[in-house]
Protein 1
Amino acid sequence: MHEEQHPMTSAAARRATITDVAREAGTGKTSISRYLNGETSVLSPELRERIEAAIAKLDYRPNQMARGLKRGRNRLVGMLLADLTNPYSVEVLQGVEAACHALGYMPLICHAANEIDMERRYLQLLTTYRVEGVIVNALGVKEELLQTFSLGGIPVVLVDRSVEGFVTDMVGLDNPEAVALATRHLVEEGFDDVVFIVQPFRRVSSRRVREAAFRDTIGALGTKGSTIVIDLAEAAPALAAIDAHLDAADANPQRVALFAANAPVALRVALHLKERYGANWQQRVALMSIDDSEWAELAGMTTVRQPTYDIGRRAVEFLHERLEGARMPARECLLPGELVVRSSTRRKQSPGT
Amino acid sequence: MHEEQHPMTSAAARRATITDVAREAGTGKTSISRYLNGETSVLSPELRERIEAAIAKLDYRPNQMARGLKRGRNRLVGMLLADLTNPYSVEVLQGVEAACHALGYMPLICHAANEIDMERRYLQLLTTYRVEGVIVNALGVKEELLQTFSLGGIPVVLVDRSVEGFVTDMVGLDNPEAVALATRHLVEEGFDDVVFIVQPFRRVSSRRVREAAFRDTIGALGTKGSTIVIDLAEAAPALAAIDAHLDAADANPQRVALFAANAPVALRVALHLKERYGANWQQRVALMSIDDSEWAELAGMTTVRQPTYDIGRRAVEFLHERLEGARMPARECLLPGELVVRSSTRRKQSPGT
DNA sequence: TTGTATGCGTTATCAC
DNA sequence: GTGATAACGCATACAA
C-alpha cells in the first residue's frame, strides 16, 4: 500500500511554491523568479542546473494568479459569446483560441446562451477576474456596459456586430458585399422574387445591416423582393407568411427564392419546408443562407460561407495590438464571404408542374 | 509621497482597490472586506451606507485573483473539451455552465480541437491558474496526466469517457442500454442486418463500449450484424465498405440498417448516402445514430438523444461535492438515452423495387 | 463595532 | 551574479 509520500494532511498535498523551490535549490526566490522569466543570462550555469532540478523534483508550476497580481497582467482575455449553439460562434472561437495560443493569452470563454442577463453577469465577472481585454459577440449589451471596460483601460473588440454609441475595433463579415453576392447569384439563376428572412433586429447590428443590404441590392437590380421577420421562439406567423408567399407565387407563377439571414433561420425554414413539401423540398423551393452550416451540404443548400476562423484571429490580433499599447483610432475589419453554390439554387422548373 | 492620484498616462485609469474604497469611505480595509463577504451583521448601518456609497462611486470590483490568492480558492473550474464542433460538447457545456452559475463557480473552458497536444497544454495551463477542479472530456489524455491533479488534491470528473487506469467520478450516457435500445428498435422494425459504424477507438472508451454493446445486443437477438470502423480524416475505405455491404444486401435481398456511433459519423455517412442515392437517400437506406443533432429532424433520421444537459450538470455537482470535502469512493453516473424515432427507420419496401 | 498587522505567491528594487 | 525585502489586493487573527 502506498501512503503517497506522507502528506501531512493526506488530503491536499499543497502545490510547491517559489519558496519551496528556492529552499530545495538552496538559493533565494529571486533567482527562481529570474529563471522563470528567462533572465537566464545572469545566472551561473551551476545555479541554473540546481534550479532546474528543484523545479522538476517538486513539479513546480508558477501560480498565474500571484503572478498576475504582482505584475498587473494575467494574460487572461475575455471572450463573450452570445450563442455557442450557432456554429458560427464555435468557428470564430477556434480562430480566437489559435491566436491566443500563438500570442500567449488564455481565453476566458463566457457563453451567454442567448440570455441578456447572462451577458451582463459575465461581463461583470470578467472585470472581476481582471482580464486584460475582451472580445465581445453579444446579443444585447449596451454601450454603457462596455464603456466601463474602455474607460478602465481595457480594450474591447467587437465581433460580427457593433454596439450603438460605442466605437471600438470591430471585425466581422463584409455584410453588404456578402448579401449582394448572394442576391446577385439568385437573380442570375433566374429567380425573380427573393424573400429575405431575418430575426428581429433588436440590438444585433448585423441583422439590420444585412437586411438593408438586401433591400439595396434588390432595388439596384430592379428585382422583386421582400423581407419576412421571424422570431425563432415563435416562428408560426413568419412561417405562415412564407407559405402564403410561396402559394401566391405558385399561382402567378413566379420563381421565388428564400434567403435566410443566418444558419439558425435557415434551419428553421428548412424544417418547415421539409414538413410541407417532403424530403424533396429542395426541388420545390430554393433556399439560400448566410453561414455554411454542417448540414448545408446534406440539404444541398447554397450558402455564403463566412471567414469565421479569420474573424476570430483578427479579433485577437486587434486586441493584442491594443494591449501592446497601440493608440490609433478604432478600426474596422470587414472580411469577404464566399459563395458556395449547391443544387438548391440551380434553376428550377417553373412551379406549375 | 502620493503622486499616484494624477494618472500619469491618463490612459488606464487603474481600477479601484479595497484600499481606495476604505479611504473613500473613511474607514479601514477590514470593514470593506467584511461588507464584501456578507458579514453584514457586524457593521453599523451608518458605516455600511458609507461603504456602499464609496463602492458605487468608485465602481469597485473586488479582484478575484487577489482574493483567490489569499483564501486558496478562486472559484475557477477547468472544463476540458475535446471537440466543440460536436454539438454534444456544446450541450454538455450548457449544463456545466448552468450548474457553475448556480453554485458560484466560473468555468475555465479549454477547447482542444481534437488535438492531443492541446489537451496536454491546456491541462498544464489549468494547474497554472490553480483551478479548484476539472471536468474532462478528452480525446487522448493518459492516466499520468490526470494523476497530477488528483494527487495535488484537485478533483477530476470525467465526462462521456473514462481514462484507462484512472479512477474518478465519471458521468455519461448509459451506453449499453442506449445501444440496445436502438438496436432492438431496428430489429423490431424488421431490419435483419445492422451495420454499426464507429471511429477508431483509440483512447475513447465510449466508442469501445458502444461497439461492444452492439455486438452483445445483436448476438442476443440472433440478428446479423457487423462493424465498420471509419476514420473521419480518411473516410474513403470505410465508405467503400459500406457501399459494398449495401450492394450485397440488395442482391440478397436483405433489409439492412446503418447505425452510426455518434453524430460526426452520422453526418459523414449521410453525406455519402446523399451523394450516392440523391436527395431521397433516406428512403433507400435506413440510418440511425447516437446523438440527436440539429439536422437529424431535417434528414428524418432516427436517433438516440443523449441527456447532455444533465450530464453537464451532474459533472459539476460531482465536482462540487468533492470540493466541499466529500471523501467517498469514485462514483459513476450513467444517464439513459431517449429514442427519437423518425422516418428513416420505418419499414422500407424491400430493396428490389 | 472597528481597525492593525500579517501573509497568500510572485515580481521589482535595491543592496551586496 | 545573487539575495533580502517590499509591494500587488485581499482576508483574517488579533487587538482596541
Protein 2
Amino acid sequence: MSSSRRQYPFHLIEPKWQSAWEQQQAFRAFNPGETVPVGHPFGIRHGLSGKVADRKILPEKYYILDMFPYPSGAGLHVGHPEGYTATDILARYRRACGLNVLHPMGWDSFGLPAEQYAVKTGQHPRVTTEANIANFTRQIKSLGFSYDWSRELATTDVEYFKWTQWIFLKLYNSWFNPETNKAEPIETLKYPENLQTVDDQVGRVAPRAPSSPATGSDELDSARRAYRDSKRLAYNAELPVWWCSEMGTVLANEEVIDGRSEVGNFPVVRKPLRQWVLRITAYAEKLLADLDTIDWSDSLKEMQRNWIGRSEGAEVKFQISNSESEITVFTTRPDTLFGATYMVLSPEHTLVQTITTDSQKIAVRSYQNEIAGKSDRERTDANKAKTGVFTGAYAINPVNGEKIPIWIADYVLTGYGTGAIMAVPAHDTRDFEFAKKFNLPVVQVVQPTDPKKDWQGYTDDGTAVNSGFLNDLPTPEAKAKISAWLEEKGLGKKTINYKLRDWLFSRQRYWGEPFPLIWKTDAGGDLYHEALPESSLPVLPPHLDDFRPTPGDKPQPPLGRAKEWANLTDGSTRELNTMPQWAGSCWYYLRYTDAKNSTAFVGKEADNYWMASNGKAAGVDLYVGGTEHAVLHLLYARFWHKVLFDLGYVATPEPFYKLVNQGLILGETEYTQFTTEDGNLVSAALIKDISEEATPSGPRLIGAHKTTGVKVFGQRISAELVEPKSQGTVLRNNPQIEVDARSQKMSKSRGNVVNPDDVLVEYGADAFRLYEMFMGPLQDTKPWNTKGVEGVYRFLGRAWRLFVDEKSETAFEQAETTTDPSKHAELLDLILLDGGITDMDATPAQLKTLHACIKKVTEDLEGMRFNTAISAMMVFINEAMTWQTKPLPVMKTFLQLLAPFAPHIAEELWARLHSTFGLQATSLAYAPWPKYDPALLVESEIEMPVQVNGKFRDTIKVAVAADNAAIEAAAKASEKVQVFTAGKTIKKVIIVPKRMVNLIVA
RNA sequence: GCCGGUGUGGCGAAAUGGCAGACGCACAGGACUUAAAAUCCUGGGACCUUAAAACGUCGUGCGGGUUCGAGUCCCGCCACCGGCACCA
C-alpha cells in the first residue's frame, strides 16, 4: 500500500491550504461590534470589508458546536473526527450559503481522566494537560477543520475557570422560589415567622451582607443563616454518597454504573458524608417539560426522562397502632389502598428504632446489620429472593381501620419516595413475591378488564373491587376519588416524585476548580460557610508537590496539604474540595460566543446574537457528540443554563436546540474459526449461542454445536485466511467451514484501535474525512474498514485526474524524486490543468448531470445524509470521466459541491482553474453555494415500468407530456406485457403519472 | 421486566407506498505491462434451466393484514444493540 503511487499530491496540498486558512484567519466568526479586517473573505462576500459588523448588517448566525474533547494522553481516536467532520461539512456549507457561522473548538481539560494520566506519568497535571492539548491541536488541525481558533478555550485556563467559579457563586447566592417557579437571588428569600427581623416584617428586602454585624441576637442570626443555607441552589449537606476508596473521592450518581466508578471501573460504596450539592431537583419539572421544545432524538430524550423519573401518585399517612407516630408512604396506586395488607419500611428508616417491639429487637437489629454489610449491587439485584423482618408493630389502614403488620425489607429503598411503602400484594409484583414468601394476606382490589386474566399479581388498570366507596370505578377514576377523599380527611395528598437526586458537586481531587468559599466559626463555636466576593476571583489552586488523591475510606482532599493556602490570616479556612469534571463543560458553549470578554462570563450582545432566537428556535443551532453524555453533561448543562436564564444572564431557556449523536465506530472486522476440544473444525453455521468469554490472554468467542450441543472454542484468524462466498465468509483452504465475522468496540486491550495519524499519512485528510462520512448514516454504529478508505481515496484521485494533465503530473512526480523534500511544495506548479477544460457552454446532458448532483448534494446536506451526498458526487465523476470536453463553469460548480467534504483538494483545483483562465480567485470557502435549476432536470421522454397484476413486466418509453390514454396504449402495446394479458380481459388500469402503469387482468 | 433503536447481497449501505440492492468495498474476467503495482473496461441477489443466455420462480428477520402494488403502512412474534431497572 505505502509503496503504491499516490493518487494525488495531498501531502503537499493539505499543509498548503491549512496554513493559508490560518494566515488569513479564514474561519474567524465576527461578533456584533467587531471590525471586519479589509480583505477578509467573509467581509468581501458580505460587503463588510473594513466595516464595523453592526448587528443590523451582519448576516444571520449559525452556531454549530462539537462536544469538546478531553485531551487525553492517548491522542485523537477515529471517533472524534467523525462528529467533527460532520459539523465541519455543515459549517462550510452554511458559510457558502451566506450565514455567519460560529464553529469553535476547545478543551475539557480538568477532571479525572486528565489527572489520572498525570498520576500515571508522575508529572504535574498542568504539564501533561498542556502537552496533550498541543498534540490534540496538531491532530485536529491536520484534518483541515474550519474552526475559529481565535475562540479556543480550555476549562483549565485561569481566565476561563474564573467564570466557572463566578457561576458557582450565582448558584450559591440563589434559591428556587416555588411561587415564581424560578431561581432568584438569595436576598428575596422570605424567612419563616419565627426567624423574621424587624426589616423583614416591614417588607424591606434584607440588604445585610452575611458578614455584617448582627442586629438581633447571635442565635437568631445563626438560625437565619442555617435557614438561608438550607435553601441555596448550592448547599452543603450530609447525605449518603458514593465513595470510591481507590480514587479517594466521592462521585455523583451519574458517574456510578453497576456499583463501580464510570472512570477506572473501581468499586464504590454508599456512605454518609458532608458534601457540596447542587439543587438540580428544583428544575426536575422544567428539565422534563422543556424536552418537548428541542429537537433531540427520541432515544436521547427518553434517556433524560428516564433519569429524571417523574411519577405521579399520592402520599398517604398511616397511624401506627398504640403510638403517636405516623408513617407516610408514597404510592402511584392510591386506588389500591383497600388492598394494603402490610407495610414495609426500608431498613434504614428512622422510625424503625421507635416502633420495633422488644421481642423483635434482636431480629431487626441483625437484619439491619446484614443489609449494611451488603454492596448496593447485591442489594438491588432484582432477581434475588425477597428478605425482610417483622418489626412487631402494626399500622392502621386509614380506609378500613384494619391493623396491618409493619415489616422492614431491603426491597424498599431509603432514597426514593419516603422510604416506606404500603404493600398491596395482589397488584404489585414485588409485594406479591414478598407476601407469598412470608405468608401475608393477599386481597384483590382490582378486577382485570379481561376476565380471563388472573387478578393475583395483576398490576395494570382495571376496575376497583372490595374497595368500599371505590367499587366499580375504573382505575383512573378510583385514583382521583381516593386522592380527593384522602385530602379532605387530611390523610394524604397528591404528589409527584422524581428519581433524580441533587447533584453531588464536590470532589476530593487536585485537578479541578477550587470553590470560592471559606469556612468560619461563629460565636457559638459552629462552623459555617461564606462565599468569597467576586473581586477575589479567580481562586487559584495552590502549588502542590504531591497532587495525588488520597486513597482510603475517608475524604482527605489533596488541597488540605497546602496549609498556607488553606488557612487565611483572619482564622477562616478555605473549602478544600474541588468541582467535578462536569463544571467546566456546563457553560463552555456560552464562553465561545464571547471568548475574550474580561468583564463578564459572556456579554449580553454576544449572547443575544449567537444564542437568541433570530425569529426561530433558540440556542446552539446544531450540537454533535457521542451518546455517552446523554445524562451527565447534557442534563447538567441544561440545568446551569436554566439557572442563568432565570437570573437574567442568558436570553434563552435551553442551550442546545438541535442535537445529534454520532454512532460508534467499531474496529475492523474480526474473523473467528471454531474447533471442538479435540481440535476439529466446526462451521460457524452449525454453532449456536456464540458469546464472548474472558480468558487470561484476552476475550475469545465460545459456542455450542447446534445439534450435538458440544462446546466449541473460537480462535482469531487473519483476514487473509478467509474469503467471501455466497453462503458467508469461509476458510480459503477449506470452503466447507464458515467463520464468524464481527466487529468489536475499539480498545487498547483488543489492539484494534485505529490511529488517525496513520491514516492521514497514507491517504490524506480529505480521504479520511470523506471515508468517515461515506461509511453510513452519522447516527449509526459502523465498523471501520481501511479498504473503504482506499475506495474514497480512489474517488478523489479520479476527481484530480479529471482536472489535471497526466503528463505534467508525471513530470512533477519525476521532479519530486530528484529534489530536496523541502522544495517539493514549489514543484506543484509543474502540474498543469487538463487541456479538455475549456471556457465554453455546457451541453444539456452535462448540465443535467451537474444539476442532478447539485440537487442531491444540497438536499442531503440539509438532511445530514453525508453518505448519499458523496455517492452523488461519485456518480457525477463517473459520468464526467467519459466527457471529451469539460466546460469550465460545470467544473467550477462541482468543486463548490466537493469543497465542504474535501476542502483541500477543492481549494487547490479551484485556485488552478482561476489562475489558468486568468480569473480573480475568490476564496472557495466563501463562494456562494450553487442553486440547481429544475428546468434543466426535466426530461422530454421518460421510462415507465409496466406491471401486470402488480408484477413488473416491462418498461415503456413515453413522452413526459403523454396523457393517460397514450400511456395505457403504450403499455398494452408492449410485447412482454401482452404475454401476460393475452386471452384475458383487462379489468382495470392504474396509472400513476410519471411513475408506473399497472394492468389488472382476470 | 420497562423504554428507545435496528434487522436488506460476501461486507458498508441505497431506495417521497411504484423497476429492491444506487454508491463503495471485496471478488472474478479482460486491457495496458517483461512482470507487478497503479489505472481503465466488463461482470454479478439466490434458485431453476443452460455451453452461455433468454424465459421462469423465489427474495428486504418470522407470521398475518391493508393496498392495484409493501423493504416502506398496520397487528402479533423473534433476534441484536443501547439506556434504565426491587423507583412503590
